Amino acid sequence: MIDISYHDSVKDVQAMFDANTGLRIGEMTPFDRPQWYDLLEQTGLNPIYAAASQGDDRAILSLMKEGSRIVPFRNWYAFTWQPLAQRNAAGDALIAKLAQDLKSRAHRVTLEPLANENGAADQVARAFAMAGWRVEVTQCDVNHVIHLGGKSFAEYWKERPGPLRTTLKRKGKKVTTKVIENFDPALWDQYEQIYGASWKPEEDHPKMLRAFAKAEGEEGRLRLGLAFYDEKPIAAQFWTVENDCAYIHKLAHLDEHNRLSAGTTLSAALFEHVIDQDRVKAVDFGTGDQPYKADWMGQTRPRYRVDCLNMKRPAAWVDLAKLAFHRLKDADVPMLAQRPWAG
User: Fold this and answer.
1) Whose CA is closest to 25, among 59, 69, 49?
2) Which of 173, 153, 113, 117 minimizes the C-alpha distance to 137?
3) Residue 73 half-sphere exposure toward CB, CA atoms < 13 A
4) Would you put residue 109 in left (φ > 0), alpha (ψ -120 to 50) or beta?
5) What's the distance, CA 65 to chain centroid?
6) Do residues 10 and 39 lie in contact, with contact meaning Cβ atoms separated by under 8 Å?
7) Which of 143, 158, 196, 256 is deepest in the core (most CB within 10 A)?
8) How far apart are CA 98 and CA 110, in angstroms?
C-alpha cells in the first residue's frame, strides 16, 4: 500500500531526504537539497511537498500553487526541477499515485524545466499518463554544458574558439583575479555592488542568494571569483562545485570597463580553478541560449515542460485549446520524440 501525505514545510519531510529511508536521488543538484527548499520558503513562497512512501521506497514532488494550477516549488535561480524519486518502476508507481491524488487539487499541473539525460522528463510524463492525465511535453529551454573527459585546463583551452583565446592572450594581464572558496561578507558585498551596477536585471531575492552562498561556503562548495582593475572590483562570478560538477550561477561586470574584457579573464580563471584544482568532470552553465555560452561549453541539452491536464475538469479543455494554439503559433518548438504518453 502506498501512503500519501502533504506538507507545507521541508522540515516535515527532512527524514525522507535521508538515504537511509530508501530515497535515492539520481544526479543530485544544488536545487534538490532540503537546505535549498528551506531558503525558498524564507522568500515567502508557499510549498506543497507531496510525499509518497511504500516500504523503503520514497518519492517527493516539491510543488506550489500558481493561480488555478500546480507548478514546481522553485524560482528562477534554480537551473532545473526534478521529482525526488528512484528512476525505476518503484519510483514511477509512487509518482503515479501522487499524480492520481493531485487530481483533487488542480485541473492542471505544469512541471518545468526538466532534464531528460537523467530520465526525469520521461519519468514525470510516464507517471502522470499512468494516472490518467493528458500529457503534453515540449522543449522550454536550453542548457549549455561541457563534459571534460579528464582534460586539463590547458587541453580544454586549446579547444576554445580562436577569438576567445586571443582575447585572453591580449587582455588577460590587464586585470587581476581572485577565486575564494570560503564565504567572505566583504567580498560578497563587492559582488553585489558589481551586479547592481551591471546590465543585469535587479535580483528578486538577494538575501536568499547571499544565504545560499554563505551556506555553500560553509560546506566548501563555493567558488566566488572577482576581477580587479587598479584594485577596484569590476567583474564578479558566483559558481559552486558539487558531485564532480561546477555550476555557474551568476556573472556580471561593469560596462564602463568593457575594453578590458575582465569577464573573459575571470571566466578563464574560474574554469582553470575548477578543472585543475577541483578536478570536476563537467561544467553546467544553467539555462538560456545566449551565444557567448557556446564559446565556453561543448554541448547543449534541452530542458522540457511537462503539461498535465485532467480532462474530466472543464477548465482543462480551455487550457488544452490554448496549448494547441501556442503549439501552432510556435511550430518550430520541438516536442519530445514519439512517446506513448505524448498527446
Assistant:
1) 59
2) 113
3) 30
4) beta
5) 20
6) no
7) 143
8) 14
Q: Which three cell numbers stand for residue 98?
A: 501522487
What end-to-end distance do the CA atoms of the chain give, in Å? 30
pLDDT digits (tens, 9 = 90+) for 52-76: 999 988 999 999 999 999 999 999 9
Cβ neighbors of 291 (< 8 A, separation 6 or more) are none
Rounded to whole angstroms, the Cα distance separating 177 from 173 reads 10
> Quick one: CA dihedral 143, 250, 65, 316, positive or negative?
negative
∠ CA 307-340-57, nearest 5°, is: 70
Contact (CB, 8 A) for 208 and 39: yes
Please tell me the number of Cα atoms within 13 Å of 112 on its side-chain side. Answer: 19
Contact, 213 vs 224, CB < 8 A?
Answer: yes
Instruction: State how far the Cα of 31 lies from the Cα of 78, in Å rounded to an integer.
Output: 6
* pLDDT tens digits for range 22-38: 445 446 799 998 999 99
- Cell 576554445, residue located: 160
> How confident is the prediction for the chain on average, in pLDDT?
91
Are residues 310 and 273 in contact, defined by beta-carbon separation less than 8 angstroms? no
Q: How much is the pTM?
A: 0.92
| Residue reference for cell 561546477 | 246
3-state secondary structure of 9: coil
Can the peptide bond before residue 113 be classed as cis, meaning omega within 30 degrees of 0? yes
